[in-house]
Design goal:
By secondary structure, the chain is of the alpha/beta class. It has 2 domains: 198 residues, Response regulator (Rossmann fold, 3-Layer(aba) Sandwich), CATH 3.40.50.2300; 129 residues, Response regulator (Rossmann fold). It contains 12 helices and 17 strands. A 7-stranded mixed beta sheet has the order 9-8-10-11-12-16-17, sandwiched between helices. Strand 5 and strand 6 form a beta hairpin. Helix 2 packs across helix 11, helix 8 packs parallel to helix 9 and helix 11 packs across helix 12. Keywords: Amino-acid transport, Signal, Transport.
Length: 386
């Protein structure tokens, strides 16, 4: 009997030891700050999501190497939204309810951010998109969304910048607009480009539309060619743009082709071909030709980490992560509400894409650049300050 009691006591002590070890393990596991990343790692715009996540990972790696925040390390929890709005909503819900993140970075595409916005609002979790440019992300029905932020410029700003470039630098009097009617991003840019171009005294001579995943654009390009505009504005993503540019040039359309930051991908040149992209221009967030030491240092660090030069999405991901890291540091808390308040108070934060301040609409005040493609290579054309 005595022997049995001793055996039971030993078992109980072993169980207590295991429980104590388990508690210690949980404590160690929770001694970090979980940040969610909701991005397009597969699907139609996977190139954007993958580049953006690379930039985010580098920023977090550097922050952790510098000691983390409040003595804690940052942990990035990544979810793939498969380039679909419904999957983006699911990913946001998972990151909040299951992974218990204190904030979310992403998604990349405006339509996927919009699908996640109300979920973040309802759960009072800050969501910061590094690349979503649709104005409704931060302001819906005339009201600022408390928990939504961005670290990139907006469609109204980007559309206006390109309209001014077309008028002032290219001396364009007429324009055709070719819109992806399945994309909120493309429709928003088209609307704002048209408003600014007409205000500048220009005339829109043709407006055409296509859908994502279309392959043959010749019918609508024929109408554009007949309209004979001075320039053609194509605010869309590289997958379709590359085919449009290639087919436009094959059909004899020689006018300057203008676009947006969605053009920025190595695959644009791979599909369209270097020659077809001559006399094309697009708005972007930074240029690798910028001689600013901070830009060149980042490029070198990114190359060392990934073996390739960063595109604009990688830079924006890096800057978006740094913006959130800065807010958590200033909040000195992992409370999502305090992080949200700190994000709203961001002012004169030095990032790779320039100095950033957050305005009353939770949008950044920052610069933009015009990139020209020459024989397949991006060249810096102009820098436009806000």
């Amino acid at each position: 009997m005595k022997k049995r009691k001793m055996t039971l006591l030993a078992g109980a002590l072993a169980l207590l030891t295991a429980v104590a070890a388990g508690c210690g393990g949980n404590k160690a596991q929770t001694n970090d700050i979980k940040i969610g990343a909701n991005f397009e790692l597969t699907g139609g715009v996977a190139q954007y999501g993958q580049s953006t996540v690379n930039g985010i990972k580098l920023a977090i790696k550097q922050a952790n190497a510098a000691g983390g925040i409040m003595g804690k390390q940052l942990t990035l929890v990544v979810a793939d939204n498969k380039s679909e709005p419904s999957e983006s909503a699911n990913a946001t819900t998972k990151l909040i309810t299951q992974d218990k993140v204190v904030a979310i970075i992403g998604p990349a595409a405006s339509s996927n951010v919009l699908a996640s916005a109300q979920i973040a609002e309802d759960n009072k979790i800050p969501l910061l998109t590094p690349t979503g440019t649709n104005p409704q992300i931060t302001v819906a029905n005339g009201k600022v969304r408390d928990f939504l932020f961005r670290s990139c410029f907006t469609d109204p700003f980007q559309g206006k910048i390109m309209a001014n470039f077309a008028t002032n630098s290219l001396k364009a009097k007429t324009a055709a607009i070719y819109t992806d009617s399945s994309s909120d991003y493309s429709k928003g840019l088209s609307k704002n480009f048209e408003a600014a171009f007409v205000k500048n005294g220009g005339q829109i001579v043709d407006k055409e539309a296509f859908l994502q995943k279309d392959q043959d654009f010749k019918a609508t390009l024929t109408k554009i060619k007949t309209a004979n505009p001075d320039i053609v504005y194509i605010p869309a993503y590289y997958e379709e743009v590359s085919k449009i540019v290639k087919q436009a040039r094959e059909m004899g359309i020689t006018a300057p082709l203008l676009g947006s930051d969605g053009w920025d991908s190595p695959k644009l040149v791979d599909i369209a071909g270097p020659a077809a992209l001559n006399n094309t221009f697009f708005t972007n967030h930074y240029s690798s030709q910028d001689k600013d030491p901070r830009v060149q240092k980042f490029i070198a660090e990114y190359k060392q980490e990934y073996g390739q030069e960063p595109d604009a999405f990688a830079v924006l991901g890096y800057d978006g992560a740094r913006m959130l890291i800065d807010a958590i540091k200033r909040a000195n808390s992992t409370d999502p509400v305090k992080i949200k308040d700190a994000l709203a108070q961001t002012k004169n934060l030095q990032l790779i894409t320039g100095i950033l301040s957050v305005d009353a609409n939770h949008d950044p005040v920052k610069s933009a650049v015009i990139i020209e493609l020459k024989d397949g290579k991006q060249t810096f054309k102009e820098k436009i300050n806000p």
